[in-house]
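User: Is it possible to get a 3D structure for a protein together with its bound compound? The compound here is pyridoxal-5'-phosphate. I've pasted both below.
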Amino acid sequence: MDPVNEWGNTPLNVVDEEIYNLIEKEKRRQSHGIELIASENFTSFAVIQALGSPLTNKYSEGMPGNRYYGGNEFIDEIENLCRSRALQVYRLDPTKWGVNVQPYSGSPANFAAYTAILNPHDRIMGLDLPSGGHLTHGYYTSGGKKISATSIYFESLPYKVDFSTGYIDYDKLEEKALDFRPKLIICGGSAYPRDWEYAKLRSVADKCGAMLLCDMAHISGLVAAQEAANPFSYCDIVTTTTHKSLRGPRAGMIFYRKGPKPEKKGQAADAVYDYEDRINFAVFPSLQGGPHNHQIGALAVALKQAMSPGFKAYAKQVKANAVALGKYLMSKDYKLVTEGTDNHLVLWDLRPLGLTGNKVEKLCDVCNITVNKNAVFGDSSALAPGGVRIGTPAMTSRGLVEKDFEQIGEFLHRSVTLTLKIQNEHGKLLKDFNKGLVNNEELAQLKEDVEKFSASFDMPGFLMSEMKYKD
Ligand SMILES: *Cc1c(COP(=O)(O)O)cnc(C)c1O
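Assistant: Yes, that's possible. Here is the predicted structure of the complex:
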């Protein structure tokens, strides 16, 4: 073969067996496990095809029709299609809303939105991380260590959930906001099992002259399918990831209001929103360089798929599955934060059992169930969070329904029972506990049952029959 073809057109399994084999192992792991991480999902074959396309080769700094490089006629069409589909998916009027689809992911989307509308040291309020908020909403530790760039560059005062109910304490939020006078209130979270009261948040924002931003990353698929309250009715800006419940490629989007502002006392009659130019400028050139066109192309595909009737059915099933799983766990007398869910996740409070999220996560991992440890409000240590977060989108994408989630509930019940047993026999210290995970027959049996169960469902994105490692 000539050098170009030898280097440029040889398939992965020939060029790099190490990476090829690791990808095949990852495919086996994904298909033979129960994926319950609430922020993950399985995207489609069509999305993966677009992601793996030569769109990745192109530089296209700037906006469609106004690029710093030539050769963008098709990239422009792709990005415009992506933007118009994004507005369509959320039923937004293009004269009132715009969208930037260039953010590389959710965190960069948030930072771009803040850069667009805030000055350094402006005040912001978001849901506290231990209450279920996201790092990028201004997290600093209780000791005052600034963790997120959001808390490094802006002054952040978090609001929290009510310690006894697990629901956001909107009254306290209002009281804090009226004292703190933030320029921006951020809603949306990563581990909050209930829907949001956007009307209430809007009224607080109006009382203290703040802008309202919703980061709907976790629930953007539910919002698209009208299976969650609509943040667009009340918010000025909506940011999101695209790879969680929306089931697309890893990327981010920023939606912003445009056109005339609603009439308000003390405001010029012809006042208009000025977010569009600020946000586009913040994304590029302030924070990013060339857009990832393979992501944007893949996102356009995912948005098209999100407008199909099948997506609506999926979103309904995501919620029904979360309810079924929650009910099963509560029937075993386990404690869920807020005693249930309105969305795609349940937050399981393990503290009444004397267990930490770390140990349950670890044991589940050994038997191919992926959950993640999560702080439960009131936890004394951030290093040993008292709960696990369990989400239904990924397994719903594999076709599981309520009865399958009851089976998953049973696997989780077995896992937690086994975690307790090992802790009792070997002790609470993680290094002692880990010894109990080795050569454990019950654990081996659970792993076998989990693998058999999960391998019986199809995988979106690739054919299990064509995997290199099948058993
Ligand atoms: C996941 C998430 C993000 C960050 O997304 P990345 O793509 O991981 O950067 C931001 N906000 C919320 C609420 C999230 O859940």
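The mean pLDDT is 96. Residues 402-426 form the longest helix (25 residues).
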